[in-house]
């Protein structure tokens, strides 16, 4: 059974109801979820599954099981076994998720300041980074920080856009990330659009307006191999 991904339509949902489909050795599968699973460089959500009697099951991580086409919620050690068919209240760790949303959207902005192919990336609650295939001498931390913050200050809304697989194949320039290719096969691909700034495939969670990111800081720039120059950022607050 395919898990309904509620966060794709509304990344700001902090709670929702869901029903237990299966309890695997690896995790709990629900019919629907607001928990984002590890993917596209963004770490999986944490939070709680709340039973009808008020008992709170801590979710330590969320992962995608591609074989099952399902999202698995990984409970903390020693958690109570849930029953198939049980209806739960889902609660994500919202402060953590919101930081991930802000940083993920900030990386989109930064990818438009550093004009180079993206070879990798990672988003954690405290910091995020992109790796670029670019000459190290072309990366200046102060310039990157200043230009990213200038774009953020424009306060532009973000928008989800869907195109077909064929449309994406006809526009290969939309795919900036060399390490992660957008999923094909379902007939359509999800894009993040920031008017006048960015348009690229992405299945992650983002803020509604880039002004919500706030200022960012460039923490460091370092060489990570022949084709990887890593730019690491954090939220200024």
From TrEMBL:
<dbReference type="Pfam" id="PF01411">
    <property type="entry name" value="tRNA-synt_2c"/>
</dbReference>
<dbReference type="InterPro" id="IPR012947">
    <property type="entry name" value="tRNA_SAD"/>
</dbReference>
<feature type="domain" description="Alanyl-transfer RNA synthetases family profile">
    <location>
        <begin position="1"/>
        <end position="237"/>
    </location>
</feature>
<dbReference type="InterPro" id="IPR018163">
    <property type="entry name" value="Thr/Ala-tRNA-synth_IIc_edit"/>
</dbReference>
<dbReference type="GO" id="GO:0003676">
    <property type="term" value="F:nucleic acid binding"/>
</dbReference>
<dbReference type="GO" id="GO:0002161">
    <property type="term" value="F:aminoacyl-tRNA deacylase activity"/>
</dbReference>
<keyword id="KW-0862">Zinc</keyword>
<dbReference type="InterPro" id="IPR009000">
    <property type="entry name" value="Transl_B-barrel_sf"/>
</dbReference>
<dbReference type="GO" id="GO:0006419">
    <property type="term" value="P:alanyl-tRNA aminoacylation"/>
</dbReference>
<dbReference type="InterPro" id="IPR051335">
    <property type="entry name" value="Alanyl-tRNA_Editing_Enzymes"/>
</dbReference>
<dbReference type="GO" id="GO:0004813">
    <property type="term" value="F:alanine-tRNA ligase activity"/>
</dbReference>
<keyword id="KW-0479">Metal-binding</keyword>
<dbReference type="InterPro" id="IPR018165">
    <property type="entry name" value="Ala-tRNA-synth_IIc_core"/>
</dbReference>
<dbReference type="GO" id="GO:0005524">
    <property type="term" value="F:ATP binding"/>
</dbReference>
<dbReference type="GO" id="GO:0046872">
    <property type="term" value="F:metal ion binding"/>
</dbReference>
<dbReference type="Pfam" id="PF07973">
    <property type="entry name" value="tRNA_SAD"/>
</dbReference>
<protein>
    <recommendedName>
        <fullName>Alanine--tRNA ligase</fullName>
    </recommendedName>
</protein>
<dbReference type="GO" id="GO:0005737">
    <property type="term" value="C:cytoplasm"/>
</dbReference>
<dbReference type="InterPro" id="IPR018164">
    <property type="entry name" value="Ala-tRNA-synth_IIc_N"/>
</dbReference>
